[in-house]
Write a structure and sequence with these properties.
Layout lengths: L11 H4 L7 H19 L4 H5 L1 H10 L6 E4 L6 H5 L38 H15 L6 E6 L6 H10 L6 E7 L10 H7 L12 H4 L3 E7 L3 H12 L4 E7 L7 H5 L29 H15 L3 E5 L3 H4 L2 H6 L4 E3 L4 H13 L3 E7 H4 L3 H9 L6 E5 L16 H6 L5 E3 L4 H12 L6 E4 L23 E4 L5 E5 L4 H9 L6 E4 L2 E3 L3 H10 L2 E9 L4 H11 L5 E7 L9 H8 L3 H11 L1
Parallel strand pairs: 1-2, 2-3, 3-5, 4-5, 6-7, 6-8, 8-9, 9-11, 10-11, 13-14, 13-16, 16-17
Antiparallel strand pairs: 10-15, 12-14
Length: 589
């Protein structure tokens, strides 16, 4: 590394040796470092570029890690990691065995709270502040950094409501850039938009109404002003909120102009900022796009169809319907609980709501799933994106629990299509009207079928099928797109092994399953969800209930959190890659 300011800084104590006049130069070096690494290694770019100055100021003014700093979500924590002992490891970010893309407690004492989902920072920081108060430590500072999209979430307001009467030493920094992953939405966003740098809060300031002392808005890229303001805030007791205005992607023209794409742009040219061209070959579509185009196709013919997403219109591809039918497709912001109950309310009035939501985020609305949808048996259609192992985002984002947490809910239909065509047909079938709620899970990434826009066909609920009927005494049972690993494994085995696909995990095709359990001596189940409570466990329970006892091997995610790496690497570690399936078959032949 060349002899720069950054080359001499490994920890915040090194940073604090610099003069305030040197910090703008450090900010440029830090911004260039992030750009150069993310350009080749990929990751979250725009959010980190937007908080370069804020990160420097926080570690310069506060005595971290003794003072406790919590980042909300953590997309913006790359400069924090670079200044807290991980600069030499940053090239391993999000790679197998490398550092996490999010703050993680067991990675560094500077990562005071593990994050990945939004809107947790205020509650966590308040918990820390109350702990300090109980210990009699009145000097310790507690800082939460939260964005304007995250602070609109219900959990953030719960934390604000409590913090306003808790009488603790706590600072919330509202990083207002008018965007999360997609542009921020809602009435609070409109309120914040009115607050510009130099604005003087009126008597109806919403933050002051919650008993916080409000400061700002100030320019979040003005280092001298940031440092002066933070120094002042250190001396003021009680709950405080500093409102800063920043630009997501600051310092890289393309990232500033196209903030959605440059949130996590993939590989790009660090010198020009231009995205690297993709190979010009025809590829299968992303599953999210199959959903997005199919729901629009269905909605054109059925005016009762509604689309709902909690802050993921681009990631889920509901954006296509939102662009053409803005009155029938809704981004409700980071509000998973609201999204689910909103869909339930619509269903009571005869609408057909498709609630598209990532598997890991649906966990945040579990009570609404049970209490508001399933208990009332309302036919809400849950389109669960990013199901299974999602790769580099790691443990906070893997969608491996949904089969287990949905499987135990009465009235819920749980389906996992094997490919794009089956996904389309499931969406079509659900749109025709069901007597129960349905969850349709599908993974991140591309499928296997290039020509996927086939004629829509209704699927019979609860039916499985035989993919390959073999001559051996072994049958492999799979659900969802992990079936492609089974198909690949069977191609390399000379002895003919049977393969059955269960699109429906609930209800199971009991007739087909009973015949399989009676016919084969060895059953191997394969899923990309947790084994405990999952598809394989359901098969095992069915066998025991019917007094059928072939040897049953369950392949899936073990009882531990899986960290980050490529999806193929993680499949291999969990034993559900094509090689893992092949090995278990060969052991039983």
């Amino acid at each position: 590394m060349p002899d720069t300011l950054l080359s001499h800084i490994n920890y915040p104590e090194d940073l604090r040796k610099l003069s305030v006049d040197q910090l703008p130069d450090l900010a440029k070096e830090l911004r260039d470092f992030v750009i150069n690494i993310v350009a080749t290694k990929e990751g979250h770019l725009g959010a980190s570029l937007g908080v370069i100055e804020l990160t420097i100021a926080l570690h310069y003014v506060f005595d971290t890690p003794n003072d406790l700093l919590v980042w909300d979500v953590g997309h913006q924590a790359y400069p924090h990691k670079l200044l807290t002992g991980r600069k030499h490891l940053f090239h391993t970010n999000r790679q197998l065995g490398g550092i996490s893309g999010f703050p993680k407690r067991d990675e560094s004492p500077y990562d005071t709270f593990g994050v990945g989902h939004s809107s947790t920072s205020i509650s966590a920081t308040l918990g820390m502040a109350i702990a300090s108060k109980l210990k009699g430590d009145t000097k310790k500072q507690h800082i939460a950094v939260i964005g304007d999209a995250s602070i609109a979430s219900g959990m953030a307001f719960e934390g604000l409501n409590h913090a306003g009467v808790a009488d603790v030493n706590m600072l919330i920094i509202l990083n207002d850039n008018a965007i999360g992953i997609d542009p921020s939405v809602g009435a609070l966003k409109e309120y914040l938009t009115k607050a510009k740098v130099g604005y003087k809060p009126k008597t109806d300031n919403i933050i002051e109404a919650l008993n916080f002392t409000y400061f700002g808005p100030i320019n979040g890229h003005d280092l001298p002003t940031l440092i002066k303001t933070l120094e002042k805030l250190k001396t003021i007791e009680g709950p405080k909120l500093l409102h800063i205005i920043t630009t997501k992607g600051k310092g890289l023209k393309q990232a500033e102009e196209n903030q959605v794409v440059y949130h996590a742009p993939g590989k790009f040219d660090a010198a020009t900022g231009d995205l690297l061209p993709k190979k010009d070959t025809q590829q299968p579509p992303k599953f999210q796009d199959v959903f997005g185009h199919t729901i629009l196709e269905l909605a054109r013919k059925n005016e009762k169809i509604i689309g709902i997403t909690p802050a993921m219109p681009t990631g889920s591809s509901l954006k296509y319907m939102m662009e053409e039918m803005p009155d029938r497709a809704f981004d409700v912001g980071i509000a998973e609980q609201h999204a689910v109950t909103l869909a339930a309310g619509m269903a009571t009035q005869g609408l057909i709501p498709f609630c598209t939501i990532y598997s890991t985020f649906l966990q945040r609305a579990y009570d609404q799933l049970i209490h508001d949808v399933a208990l009332q048996n309302l036919p809400v259609i849950f389109c669960i994106d990013r199901a299974g192992l999602v790769g580099a985002d790691g443990a906070t984002h893997h969608g491996v629990f949904d089969i287990a947490y949905l499987n135990c809910i009465p009235n819920m239909i749980v389906a996992a299509p094997a490919n794009e065509i089956e996904l389309r047909n499931l969406l079509y079938t659900a749109s025709l009207g069901l007597e129960h709620p349905i969850a349709i899970r599908y993974p991140r990434g591309r499928g296997v079928i290039v020509d996927w826009k086939t004629t829509l066909t209704e699927i019979q609920i609860g039916k499985g099928k035989c993919v390959v009927e073999g001559t051996s005494e072994i049958a492999v049972l799979s659900t969802g797109t992990i079936a492609k690993n089974v198909i690949s494994a069977l191609k390399t085995i000379k002895e003919k092994v049977s393969h059955y696909h269960f699109c429906f995990i609930k209800p199971l095709d009991s007739d087909l399953l009973k015949g399989i359990l009676e016919k084969y001596k060895t059953i191997i189940t394969v899923e990309d969800g947790v084994i405990i409570g999952g598809f394989g466990t359901t098969i095992l329970n069915f066998a025991n209930k019917n007094n059928l006892h072939p040897k049953i091997h369950l392949l899936g995610i073990p009882d531990q959190f899986v960290h980050h790496g490529t999806t193929d690497e993680l499949h291999d570690i969990c034993g559900i890659s094509s090689e893992g399936v092949r090995n278990i078959i060969l052991k039983n032949l």
